[in-house]
Design a protein that fits this description.
It is built from ten helices and eight strands. The protein is an alpha/beta fold and 297 residues long. Its EC number is 2.7.11.32, 2.7.4.27.
């Protein structure tokens, strides 16, 4: 791959049911690769030999990855065999788990496509959270910022969007606001419940590395300010001043952490702040501002 050529990947989501399970897994995984241009091809209701061969042939032509949740035994075996013969990268999301559970409980699975536990209130709450989060990504939807359960702030490439999406898939309505050098954050940020705001920080050298990779993947000018170490240091310093001004907001250092680890910290901070605020209101005293670290000069 050429140095300045964008990284691309085509993923074929294949299911003999609706494909919602495979789509959810693919969404959760692809956000971990912000520098990659993903194309997601959805193929629900695949239950015949002809359908399998059509998907496999298309994936072979485009050097794609097949991710599937096929439960009909003969269709799953056909898909696996075709993928191996054509040397197509593929991931079986349900087959191994069906086998393990069947062996563990001593019972054969139904092997019925599209079976689920039904659409609960929790399901619809998560869908609402995902929609809200998408609509409030990167400073969008400021007028309804107060409706967010969590508001993440941080400089560019500090994992605001991947972390927001991950949290939304667990039912949290998340908004994220970029902190840009020399630009005042939106006034609305000071008007909402401050216990919902969490700042993200990252090691300067790590941020420079991430941004350099991003610039190369886009084929942009590598000599610009975006990935310049001095400018990055200025941005982080400016962000520290914004964070310390007023409340201040607690911070999560994402350096070297997985999205899952960072999400646990964010949730813990938000819930702790809410508890402190509730106790303070009950006692009729002001809470001490949270001064947890993360922004060291």
């Amino acid at each position: 791959m050429e140095r300045n050529q964008p990284r691309r990947c085509t993923i074929y989501v294949v299911s003999d049911g609706g494909g919602a399970t495979a789509e959810a897994v693919v969404d959760a995984v692809t956000v971990q690769f912000p520098g990659v241009d993903f194309t997601i091809e959805r193929h629900p209701g695949v239950r015949t030999r002809e359908q399998v061969l059509a998907v496999v042939q298309e994936a072979a032509r485009n050097n794609g990855i097949i991710v599937h949740t096929i439960v009909i035994t003969e269709i799953r075996r056909l898909l696996l065999r075709e993928c191996r013969q054509r040397v197509i990268d593929h991931v079986d999301l349900t087959g191994p788990l069906l086998g393990q559970i069947s062996q563990h409980v001593g019972m054969r699975p139904l092997l019925r496509p599209g079976v689920s536990r039904g659409l609960s209130d929790e399901y619809f709450r998560r869908i609402d959270a995902i929609q809200f989060t998408v609509q409030h990504d990167d400073g969008q939807g400021i007028d309804s910022l107060h409706e967010a359960d969590i508001v993440l702030v941080g400089v560019s490439r500090s994992s605001k969007t991947p972390l927001s999406i991950y949290l939304s898939m667990r039912g949290w309505k998340v908004a994220n606001i970029p902190i840009v050098l020399g630009v005042e954050p939106p006034a609305k940020l000071d008007q909402i419940d401050q216990t919902r705001i969490v700042a993200l920080t990252i090691d300067k050298d790590e941020l420079v590395r991430i941004r350099q990779h991003r610039v190369r993947s886009l084929g942009a000018d590598e000599d610009g300010d975006y990935a310049d170490p001095e400018k990055v240091a200025e941005e982080l310093a400016y962000c520290r001043r914004i964070v310390r001004r007023g409340y201040p907001w607690p911070t999560v250092d994402i350096t070297g952490k997985s999205i899952e680890e960072a999400a646990k910290e964010v949730i813990s901070l938000v819930e702790s702040q809410r508890l402190r605020a509730a106790l303070s209101e009950r006692l009729g005293v002001d809470a001490d501002p949270w001064t947890d670290g993360g922004w060291e000069d």
